[in-house]
Every structure is written in structure tokens, then in C-alpha cells.
Write a structure and sequence with these properties.
Shape: globular
Number of helices: 7
Structural class: alpha+beta
Largest sheet: 10 strands, mixed
Helix content: 25-40%
CATH class of the largest domain: Alpha Beta
CATH superfamily of the largest domain: TruD, insertion domain
Number of domains: 2
Length: about 325
């Protein structure tokens, strides 16, 4: 099933790509701003730093902050991992045990925009979502009428909530890591976690692709759970009545399926056995992704998209419904 490192061309919901583009030609072509979605207390034992970073991944920045503040890196908080090959803005929390003077913190590619305080460490997934500004450098003819029609579809109907290709590593290389781990190879903790998330993401994308091909990715089906828009809340569907159908059509709720784990029944069996042995808990993920504040501007050979997504969502899930790269 996954003996090669080539990722499948998972099904698209809204038709073939409308144009070819170059993505991430420069870091400024891909900009991400984290939306925390709640107020800071302005007191407490944690400094909250709103940081802009270029060419640096989130975990590397966390290590630099820990070194400067002289605290263990495990005590640095951040809500989500952000792209390295981009300009990204996100919050980090750092314990104030040593009262660091942040005006003296000089890290290449990192700029502290705001400094506030809060009573608790920033937890993973604690943010509301992210806003994106993405420049696509067009490699083929761009026609506005079909693009406008496609943008309307993405706004009104959402997009399949695929895990992005970056989850699977460069050229799908994390699939090889997953195979090694499932085959019994001992891995360091970080790589082990990467192997597990790769397996779960690949299985989810495979099932979602099948639902897209069947045109049921945006419809509640027996066996689904319902995910409440804008939250991680899911609930069972003993009966799918007219009210639930209407709520789903209005994107107030979305179909949600398993993120596989211990007790799940799926193929390939050696992946299933490995997750069970590691006692990985099952989870849930929405099949559909709501796209808000979506705008598009075409300037000469550039297409600029702006939009916002909830936490855990990938911008490439939106882009692949519009173009190829």
C-alpha cells in the first residue's frame, strides 16, 4: 500500500486545478499569522512573546528562547508548529523564573513584536486558527471567470480537510520512517511521534479521498460523528434527521471520522499492529474545512490569496482545490 514514497493524488472536490503555480518561491510568498482567539491576563509567571520568524521552524525558535531565558525547553509553550519556509507570526510562552530582559534577545530570523504576560503556559492547540496571505507565482494562463466561480464554491461549500503534504515530509519521506517504525525499528521519541502521525494522517487522507470520490465528504453518513464548527467538540449521531442535515449544509457541523489508533480496524495490518502496540489513542477529525475571509487578487503573473482557517488545518488543502504546483 505504501511501499513507495510517492504521495497519492488524493481526490479533489471542486474539479481539476485551474492553473499551475510556483509556491514558496520566496519566504514572503507564504505568510501565516496565528490567531490566539482569547485574552491574556496581563499578569502571572509566563512571558508571552508574539514572534515573527523567517526561515526557522517553531521548535528551533523554542530552543533559542529556552537558552536565552535559561529554562528547560520543555517549559516553552507554543500553540502550533508553523512552516519554516515562510514568514510566520505566532505566540510563545516562556517562564519568568529568571526575569529575562527580552530587549537583549537577538536570534537570526526572529523578531519579537509584542511582549505580554499570562498565568499559564501556552498549550498545543490552544489557538483559534491562522490567517494566511499566499502569493502564487502563475506558471500558466489565469482566467478570472472560472477562478471567481471556484472561489465562490470554496467559500460556500468548504474544502476536504486533508493533511498537507508537509505532514509526510519532503518527497513523502516520512512514509519510509513510518514503515521502519512499524517494522520494529527503535526510534528517538521525536521521530517515533513523527512516524505515528504520518500513519494516522495517511489513513485519514485515504478515507477522505474515498469520501470525496463518492461525493459524501460534506454529508453526514451512518457511523460518522459530527464536529461542531470552530471547536474540537464532536458528538454521536444516533439518527441523522432533517435538522442535522440542514446544519451540515449550513456548515454549522461537519462529518467527522476516526484518526486511527489502538482498537481501529484498517489496512495495512502491520500499521494497525504497531499503533495498538504503542497504545495510541483514537481521535476524531472533521472531513470538511470551512474557509473564511477568502479573497483573491490577480496582479500580472501573481495570484494573491488571503483566508483564515481553524487550528489543525492546512492551507494547501485550500490551494489544491484551485491550482497545482
Amino acid at each position: 500500500m505504501v511501499h513507495t514514497q510517492t504521495l497519492p493524488d488524493w481526490s479533489r472536490a471542486h474539479g481539476a486545478p485551474l492553473f499551475a503555480a510556483q509556491l514558496r518561491y520566496r519566504p514572503e510568498d507564504f505568510q501565516v499569522t496565528e490567531e490566539l482567539g482569547w485574552d491574556l491576563s496581563d499578569d502571572g509567571e509566563h512571558d508571552y512573546l508574539f514572534i515573527e520568524k523567517i526561515g526557522a521552524n517553531t521548535q528551533w525558535v523554542a530552543k533559542q528562547l529556552a537558552q536565552y531565558a535559561q529554562v528547560p525547553v520543555k517549559d516553552i509553550g507554543f500553540a502550533g508548529l508553523k512552516d519554516r519556509h515562510a514568514i510566520t507570526r505566532q505566540w510563545f510562552s516562556v517562564p519568568r523564573w529568571n526575569s529575562p530582559d527580552w530587549s537583549g534577545c537577538n536570534v537570526e530570523g526572529v523578531e519579537i513584536h509584542h511582549l505580554e504576560r499570562h498565568r499559564r503556559k501556552l498549550k498545543r492547540g490552544a489557538h483559534r486558527g491562522n490567517s494566511f496571505t499566499i502569493k502564487l507565482r502563475s506558471l500558466s494562463t489565469v482566467e478570472m471567470e472560472p477562478i471567481d466561480q471556484r472561489i465562490a464554491k470554496l467559500t460556500n461549500q468548504g474544502v476536504p480537510n486533508y493533511f498537507g503534504e508537509q505532514r509526510f515530509g519532503r518527497n513523502g519521506g516520512n512514509l519510509g520512517l513510518a514503515e521502519e517504525w512499524a517494522g520494529g525499528k527503535r526510534l528517538a521519541r521525536e521521530k517515533r511521534g513523527l512516524a505515528i502521525s504520518t500513519i494516522r494522517s495517511f489513513i485519514f487522507n485515504t478515507v477522505l479521498s474515498e469520501r470525496v470520490a463518492q461525493s459524501t465528504w460534506n454529508q453526514l453518513q451512518p457511523g460518522d460523528k459530527a464536529n461542531l464548527e470552530g471547536s474540537g467538540s464532536v458528538f454521536d449521531l444516533p439518527d441523522i434527521d432533517a435538522n442535522l442535515v440542514d446544519r451540515c449544509q449550513a456548515m454549522d457541523i461537519h462529518p467527522s471520522i476516526l484518526l486511527v489508533g489502538d482498537g481501529s480496524n484498517f489496512k495495512p495490518e502491520h500499521w494497525q499492529t504497531a499503533l495498538a502496540k504503542a497504545r495510541v489513542n483514537e481521535g476524531q477529525r472533521s472531513l470538511r474545512l470551512k474557509v473564511t475571509d477568502l479573497t483573491i487578487e490577480v496582479v500580472a503573473t501573481h495570484v494573491v490569496l488571503t483566508f483564515s482557517l481553524g487550528r489543525g488545518a492546512y492551507a494547501t488543502a485550500v490551494l489544491r482545490e484551485l491550482c497545482s504546483w
